[in-house]
Design a protein that fits this description.
With 662 residues, the chain is an alpha+beta fold. Among the domains are: 114 residues, no CATH class; 30 residues, no CATH class; 193 residues, Winged helix-like DNA-binding domain superfamily/Winged helix DNA-binding domain (Arc Repressor Mutant, subunit A), CATH 1.10.10. Helices cover 33% and strands 21% of the residues. It is built from 16 helices and 26 strands. It has a 6-stranded mixed sheet with strand order 7-6-11-10-9-8. A hairpin with a 5-residue loop joins β6 and β7.
Length: 662
């Protein structure tokens, strides 16, 4: 906040200082030239030319109220951290050499709340795949009009010509290999065309007031001058130049929030020392206190703070009990936190899906405040799914009912009935609630057997006729060489995507060995080259295995000489569509005996590897998730839990075709 001051002198030699309105830096944009090869300046004006984000950072760092609210919002949005959907473990992936994933996300949220935008540098390996994600401090970034190019400057104030340019990130393979910038900003109505407008923009003057009030009080402690004073020098009439010089010295030291308003005068010399007289009562401190109340309210309103207590601000008339805190938090979470989380989750998932990551979401372990509502009140105010959400559990079917509307649950879990054909159900996979938006409802095209009990439970399994509809899917296992088998059961499409992501590293390494022209290199040297060029860490055994698999499949010829290896690609690699023949498929595995249902028995006997799309085709045909429930399921209407009713499982394998297909 810069104050503009005018000076006037009357015939008596008295100089009067009149303070005009303060000037707040504005985020005006200035376009350079008529093309998009230059960045747009962000901020115009004295000492703020192209430095408006520095002004926003100054507000953040100099106002404890504003900074405390933003830091509190970061904590509320982060919750227990960001996790892969359906997983509780901390994401162990390091986005770059310096940050853990949680540290990386914290930096992004900080920028997002200060600037309403964030930016990430995406680094690629030689195959054009992303391998690192580096947070870019947003105040160091400038962009062109259509946000297709970005300029990163280490210090725009003192080194404005020292910058690096980047192109905009796009999904898919990056053919040029250069780093790109992923930019995200939430929409906010504004006259600005390029740069974002912070969500607290309506309170910027109030935040400046908060800073000035604190400056006033600290100066009041340090300085003994009283407000609105007349300072008289008995030295006779002063020349204008001398008077102005003296005026500037006193003005610079004692005006504004850092000092006082004063009037400077010169009288005839009579031996008196300079005098200081108070012209008005010293009540400026009271004026600042009254102004502070409005300032705090303006800042809280702009930040959508439903209760100051959520950010450690105590106000008159508030008791601060846990119940009031939780009620305030629930309101704040619904009107603010959920929206910001959705924006961040959507934008981050768009970026990381391109690298094969599973969808991510922010997690809360439960209530932030203990000793909240009594159990009786919870039964009357919370639905089943709301309670489950607080405990970190997924929703269940028909769970959007108040707790006291639910019928008592039997103390003993009802047993799944034995099917009519005498086969024994083997629910060896722990039952888990299906998502509330996924209703198990067999398709009308399925001829599967169903059994409905008097208590409303449903037992369902696929039949011989169902197998006839899918027997053409998959490829015979004898057509493949199995390279690697995944070490746990695939129970959902998310598991399948995760397994395929693990096998992608093998594919990339195989491509690299084929294309890079390895000549007289040891296994250790090949490992180091893969780590450097692809960002993939492999063991020596992995390298040997992949080279051997490629040689067995006829993709390369390998020569060993004195522990060094030379690899040459064969004619098969001249056909691009056959270079990447390592693929992920799924095997239907489990017990084979006379108690198997006909569908499962025939699928096992078929002995094929299936693609993910073929299993999805089965799911569409039969009307339920075949990955999750395999050959059948049992639904308990009392608990609303659906469990797999099958002894078999899907296992992911990495395979290569023995003979190329036309």
């Amino acid at each position: 906040m810069k104050k503009q001051t005018t000076v006037s002198k009357d015939m008596t030699g008295v100089i009067d200082l009149n303070f005009s309105s303060s000037v707040t830096p504005q985020p005006y944009e200035q376009v350079q030239g008529s093309n998009d090869n230059s960045f747009v300046y962000w901020g115009i004006g004295e000492k703020m030319y192209n430095l408006y984000p520095n002004f926003l950072l100054k507000l953040y760092n100099d106002s404890p109220l504003h900074k405390g609210i933003i830091n509190g919002k970061i904590d509320y949005i982060t919750g227990d951290g960001i996790r892969f959907k359906g997983k509780d473990e901390v994401i162990g992936i390091k986005p770059n050499d310096s940050d853990s994933f949680d540290e990386f996300i914290n930096k992004i949220i900080n920028d997002y709340l200060i600037f309403n935008a964030y930016a990430i540098e995406v680094v690629y390996n030689k195959l054009g795949r992303p391998i690192q994600w580096v947070h870019i401090p947003f105040h160091k970034l400038r962009m062109n009009r259509d946000r297709s190019r970005f300029w990163y400057g280490y210090d725009w104030q003192f080194e404005p010509s020292n910058y690096v340019t980047y192109d905009m990130w796009k999904p898919g393979i990056n053919k040029d290999g250069f780093s790109k910038v992923y930019y995200y900003s939430n929409y906010a109505p504004s006259v600005l065309n390029v740069y974002p407008t912070p969500e607290y923009s309506g309170a910027i003057k109030a935040i400046e007031n908060d800073i000035e009030i604190r400056e006033f009080h600290i100066n009041n402690i340090r300085n003994s001058f009283s407000p609105s004073s007349l300072i008289t020098f008995y030295t006779g009439g002063a020349e204008p130049e001398r008077a102005d010089a003296l005026n500037r010295k006193i003005q610079n030291a004692y005006t504004g929030s850092n000092g006082k308003k004063f009037i400077l005068g010169f009288e005839s010399p009579d031996g008196k020392a300079p005098s200081v007289q108070t012209l008005t009562p010293s009540d400026a401190d009271k004026m600042f206190i009254e102004n502070k109340k409005d300032t705090i309210q303006d800042i809280l309103t702009a930040h959508m703070c439903v209760s100051p207590m959520l950010f450690g601000i105590k106000t008159e008339g508030q008791l601060g009990g846990a119940t009031e805190l939780e009620s305030s938090y629930e309101i704040f979470k619904n009107i603010y936190v959920k929206n910001r989380r959705n924006e961040l989750e959507t934008s981050l998932n768009r970026l990381f899906a391109d690298a094969g990551f599973q969808p991510m979401e922010f997690k809360d372990s439960g209530s932030l405040f203990s000793s909240t509502l009594s159990d009786i009140m919870k039964m009357k105010t919370y639905t089943i799914n709301e309670v489950r959400e607080k405990e970190g559990l997924p929703p269940i079917l028909n769970g959007d009912r108040l707790i006291d509307e639910v019928k008592p649950v039997p103390t003993q879990e009802p047993q799944a009935p034995t099917p009519d054909n005498g086969s024994i159900p083997d629910v060896n996979v722990v039952g888990s609630p299906i998502p509330a938006n996924q209703v198990v409802s067999p398709s009308a095209t399925s001829t599967g057997g169903s059994k409905f009990s008097n208590d409303g439970s449903v037992t369902y399994h696929l039949t011989d006729d169902d197998f006839e509809k899918v027997k053409h899917l998959g490829k015979d296992k004898t057509k493949f060489t199995t390279l690697k088998k995944f070490d746990y059961t695939i129970t959902s499409f998310s598991d399948a995507r995760y397994a395929e992501q693990q096998f992608d590293d093998d594919k990339d390494v195989a491509d690299y060995i084929i294309k890079s022209g390895i000549k007289n290199m040891t296994i250790v040297q090949i490992k180091a080259a893969i780590r450097k060029d692809l960002g993939i860490t492999v063991t020596a055994d992995d390298v040997r295995r992949i080279i051997q698999e490629l040689e067995d499949s006829g993709m390369i010829n390998k020569n060993d000489l004195n522990k060094s290896i030379t690899v040459k690609s064969t004619e098969k690699t001249m056909q691009p569509e056959k270079i990447r023949r390592i693929e992920t498929r799924y095997s239907y595995d489990g017990i084979e005996d006379d108690r198997n249902r006909p569908f499962c028995a025939k699928l096992l006997e078929n002995d094929r590897y299936y693609s993910r799309s073929e299993i999805q085709e089965m799911s569409l045909l039969f009307g339920y998730d075949v990955f999750s429930y395999r050959g059948g399921f049992y639904h308990n209407p009392t608990t609303n839990i659906t469990t797999p009713y099958c002894r078999h499982r899907w296992t992911a394998v990495s395979v290569v075709l023995n003979t190329p297909e036309e």
